Amino acid sequence: xxxxxxxxxxxxxxxxxxxxxxxxxxxxxxxxxxxxxxxxxxxxxxxxxxxxxxxxxxxxxxxxxxxxxxxxxxxxxxxxxxxxxxxxxxxxxxxxxxxxxxxxxxxxxxxxxxxxxxxxxxxxxxxxxxxxxxxxxxxxxxxxxxxxxxxxxxxxxxxxxxxxxxxxxxxxxxxxxxxxxxxxxxxxxx
Length: 190
Hints:
CATH topology: Nucleotidyltransferase, domain 5
Strand order of the largest sheet: 3-2-1-4-5
Structural class: alpha/beta
Distance between the termini: 23 Å
CATH architecture: 2-Layer Sandwich
Strand content: 15-25%
Number of domains: 1
Shape: globular
């Protein structure tokens, strides 16, 4: 049985209709992760760090307000390359699933690696969009928000929404719950 690396990224966004910077892409500002033992459904390790945006630091302001990240947090943050190195220390290709709620986190790391000219350490074959898995496993009519999925399963929310480690912890609780109910990862297409 594989272990589950449950990850959440907080990242820059640009939602205005005009003024989008040329070549804009979302940059990760914070990551949180929880590694779950695939057999016992217990936490192996947790990690969190702020990440300094390199390309579009001005666009970080909107995400900071949304996720309560401060300028001081970003000033003490690590570089994107360091974040990838930290992920590599806990992610084992073909031995871990890389789990996120929705597909945004996958697309953000994939595009950022391309823009930085770095190899994405995460293999798509290991990626799990838990919102899709949840919808399929529970025969939900539509994909739910993480909060609504936790509520539907009567799992107590911990921490603060839109902080990377708390979101990863809440997602990990749902992974463990689904595993206990017999869930197994399905095949997904990119």
